Amino acid sequence: MTYEAAARFEPTTKSASATVLERSAVIDLDAVRHNVRQFVAVASPASVMAVVKADAYGHGAIQVARAALGAGARWLGVAHISEALVLRAAGIDAPMLAWLHTTESNFQAAVAAGVDVGISGWELDAVVAAAREQERPARIHLKVDTGLGRNGSTITQWDQLVGQAMEYQDEGLLRVVGIFSHLAVADEPHRPETDEQLAVFREAIAVAEDAGVDTEVRHLANTPATLSRPDAHFDLVRVGLGLYGLSPFEGQSSAELGLRPAMTVRTLVSNCKRVPEGQGVSYGLNYRTSGESTLGLIPLGYADGVPRIATGGPVRVNGVNYPVVGRIAMDQMVIDFGIVGADEPSLLGAEAVMFGDGADGGPTADDWAAAAGTNNYEIVTRISPRVPRIYVNETPEADAR
């Protein structure tokens, strides 16, 4: 290699005052606020619950919750009570629902913290016991299984569950705040099952109302139903994926829905080297260069949340998208730059974007989902804690609640 070619792989110069992390997931909270406002407008007069389970789909629950509430969301939703307690400990006092429990769930802490609890059946007595212990009425949402087949009371057991809940309410041990269910195929708008689930939900509401239930909120719609089924809005919609600017519909982009992806995962090219034709790449040597080429090492791997199966996923360097070649390893993956001319921009130390909002033609979470044979939910949620979260456009004064 000539001196000039070798010089091509010198690290790019950074100012002494600049702080550039080796790798990071950059979360744009303005994008979150924008997305919330979009859903508030679409759902009105129904309120919006911002679903921030799984650390806000990997975006950071506390920061996203504050941004979402500041932009007009009225409720927060999580899967586990432990997730709700983290938000309460951060001083967030908005109405909050946790809906997935085990026999070891801390219902006492939920009641004490004023966290609403989803009830499918067996939890009712445990929550009532917690209310007695705390000497404070529990706030519960009764869940009916309208067809998804996971949590929720069956429609045949629904009358009994409602009756038991009302007996406890008459004793002052709880308040039935809501009735809810979850949709199975709302992301496929042509499917008839959504109409069927909606009919069962209306039947469940009628049964509850006949038993004397006077709810604050009835909620069924997730992100896709909020966008495509206004008849499913009721009093409250639960927005998860859309909160983070991702599309729930195959063949319809975030931009087409007026949403802005909030997460950008980026790093720096950590090594560059000129290799001959036939050079094998990564474990298994499943890829070999077709000619003399330059390989770039990207220090992200499956320990960082990159799907191991997603060979071919795009990485953007200096305005060009390069597919990952060879097997993705625990800590790293490789891209093939091809022939690099002496007059081309520096590569070593250049920023490498795994995915972002795609506005500049760069890769998106949807691109990586396609490469991995999964959905965009999984791509953002699996980015591991080893990748530091960096928040931009924080306005704590506006978001504080």
UniProtKB/TrEMBL annotation:
Recorded name of the encoding gene: alr
Cofactor(s) essential for the protein: pyridoxal 5'-phosphate
EC number(s) recorded for this UniProt protein: 5.1.1.1
Alphabetic keyword roster: Isomerase, Pyridoxal phosphate
Function of the protein: Catalyzes the interconversion of L-alanine and D-alanine. May also act on other amino acids.
Catalyzed chemical reaction(s): L-alanine = D-alanine
Domain Alanine racemase C-terminal: 262-392
EC category name: isomerase
Binding site for substrate: 150, 330
Active site feature: 53 (proton acceptor), 283 (proton acceptor)
CDD domains named among the record's database cross-references: PLPDE_III_AR
GO molecular function list: alanine racemase activity
Record organism: Arthrobacter methylotrophus
Pathway, per record: Amino-acid biosynthesis; D-alanine biosynthesis; D-alanine from L-alanine: step 1/1
UniProt-listed Pfam families: Ala_racemase_C (PF00842), Ala_racemase_N (PF01168)
Tagged with keyword Iron: no
InterPro entries: Ala_racemase, Ala_racemase/Decarboxylase_C, Ala_racemase_C, Ala_racemase_N, Ala_racemase_pyridoxalP-BS, PLP-binding_barrel
Family: Belongs to the alanine racemase family.
Modified residues (N6-(pyridoxal phosphate)lysine): 53
Source organism, top-level taxon: Bacteria
Protein name according to UniProt: Alanine racemase
